[in-house]
């Protein structure tokens, strides 16, 4: 593997990191002004960087050959494609926001599994932003960096993502879940240490190819926006759980009704999960995980057979609760399990996958970790 010096012929000025995330509960609620509860993972993207003063940025990936170079002043949405569109988008949003970053050489290295739904794209943007800002000693609040990353992904890359992934990558702290209220733009750190209760959070990448994920994600978001407009509210967060049945009765389309039911009940599940965690009742969060999965399977319709088999098998093997996590149509499940049962639950999922002819799944460490930072 080529080093930074091999690629760019110079020594780096520093390195920065941003982690992937897994969401404990609160799926497809962020773009509805709702509530989410992610943790940052140990898995991360590391950017090694050096300053340039010619207004150009060169990017290279440890996992790919070649170097992509572009002029900051010439960046426009669509001007850089493939994976390099993300660091280009980071440079573009900094330029558009009035930050002078001069230029840089950037080398990326990642141990976030690709396609696992663990927010590698947000980590890539956040890592680029903290590196470009850090090279120039520009101090920007982590929450603002998250907003810049979201704008870059929305406006430059063209993905209609919410703000959860970027905020998790920037603002999570070790040993905590991040309780993020999107409408209020407020965060709270909720202690989350399953090992202290004799538990483990199992994250299983089901290795399912993402099926139509971009178009389906956009379609779900459009359905939610359509429902909010029909109900005369700014976002579905404005529908109180107690008023859900009345709101559903006002909607004309049965598919849209199901989408709304998922979002409103999912927001309530986040509230309930946080209350239980604050009360030290982590085991009781398990059934909320399972109810969330049922809602995503039946009402939001974003699961695939691999996700459903993994969840059902985990529950049959003794998990306290399990659910798919992330945008859906592939990715990962999480399962809350007794610590001494983690291996047997994973083995049961592996056996079920083999019997179904699915690609073998992979387990990940789910230690709540810190958000983006400078390494050196």
UniProtKB/TrEMBL annotation:
UniProt name for this protein: Galactokinase
Gene3D superfamilies: 3.30.230.10, GHMP kinase, C-terminal domain
Protein's pathway: Carbohydrate metabolism; galactose metabolism
InterPro entries, alphabetized: Galactokinase, Galactokinase_bac, Galactokinase_CS, GalKase_N, GHMP_kinase_C_dom, GHMP_kinase_C_sf, GHMP_kinase_N_dom, GHMP_knse_ATP-bd_CS
Positions of the Galactokinase N-terminal domain: 3-51
Main location: cytoplasm
Domain GHMP kinase N-terminal intervals: 86-171
Gene Ontology molecular function: ATP binding; galactokinase activity; magnesium ion binding
Residues at the catalytic site: 165
One Gene Ontology term from the biological process aspect of the record: galactose metabolic process
EC number(s) recorded for this UniProt protein: 2.7.1.6
Pfam families: GalKase_gal_bdg, GHMP_kinases_C, GHMP_kinases_N
Family indicated by similarity: Belongs to the GHMP kinase family. GalK subfamily.
Taxon lineage: Bacteria, Bacillati, Actinomycetota, Actinomycetes, Propionibacteriales
Annotated positions binding ATP: 61, 115-121
Binding locations of Mg(2+): 121, 153
């Amino acid at each position: 593997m080529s080093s930074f010096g091999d690629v760019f012929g110079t020594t780096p000025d520093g390195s920065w990191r941003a982690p992937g995330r897994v969401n404990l509960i609160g799926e497809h609620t962020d773009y509805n002004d709702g509530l989410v509860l992610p943790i940052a993972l140990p898995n991360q993207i590391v950017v090694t960087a050096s300053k340039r003063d010619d207004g150009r940025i060169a990017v290279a990936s440890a996992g790919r050959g070649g170097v992509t170079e572009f002029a900051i002043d010439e960046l426009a949405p669509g001007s850089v494609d493939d994976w390099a569109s993300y660091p280009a988008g980071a440079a573009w949003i900094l330029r558009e926001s009035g930050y002078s970053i001069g230029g840089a050489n950037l080398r990326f290295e990642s141990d976030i599994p690709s396609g696992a739904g663990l927010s590698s794209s947000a980590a890539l943007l956040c890592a680029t932003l903290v590196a470009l800002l850090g090279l120039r000693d520009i101090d920007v609040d982590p929450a603002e960096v998250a907003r810049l990353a979201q704008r870059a992904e929305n406006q430059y890359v063209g993905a209609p993502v919410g703000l959860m992934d970027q905020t998790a990558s920037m603002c999570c702290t070790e040993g905590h879940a991040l309780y993020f209220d999107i409408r209020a733009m407020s965060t709270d750190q909720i202690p989350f240490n399953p090992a202290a209760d004799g538990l483990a959070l199992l994250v299983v990448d089901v290795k399912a190819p993402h099926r139509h994920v971009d178009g389906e994600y956009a379609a779900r978001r459009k359905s939610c926006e359509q429902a909010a407009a029909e109900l005369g509210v700014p976002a579905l967060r404005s529908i109180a759980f107690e008023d859900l049945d009345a709101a559903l009765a006002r909607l004309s389309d049965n598919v849209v009704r199901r989408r709304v039911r998922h979002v409103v009940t999912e927001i309530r599940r986040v509230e309930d999960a946080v209350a239980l965690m604050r009360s030290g009742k982590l085991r009781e969060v398990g059934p909320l995980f399972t109810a969330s999965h049922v809602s995503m399977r039946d009402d939001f319709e974003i699961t695939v057979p691999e996700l459903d088999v993994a969840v059902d098998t985990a529950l049959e093997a003794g998990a306290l609760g399990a659910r798919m996590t992330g945008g859906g149509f592939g990715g990962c499940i999480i399962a809350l399990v007794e610590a001494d049962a983690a291996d047997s639950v994973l083995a049961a999922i592996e056996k079920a996958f083999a019997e179904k002819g699915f690609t073998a799944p992979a387990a990940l460490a789910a230690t709540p970790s810190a958000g983006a930072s400078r390494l050196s």
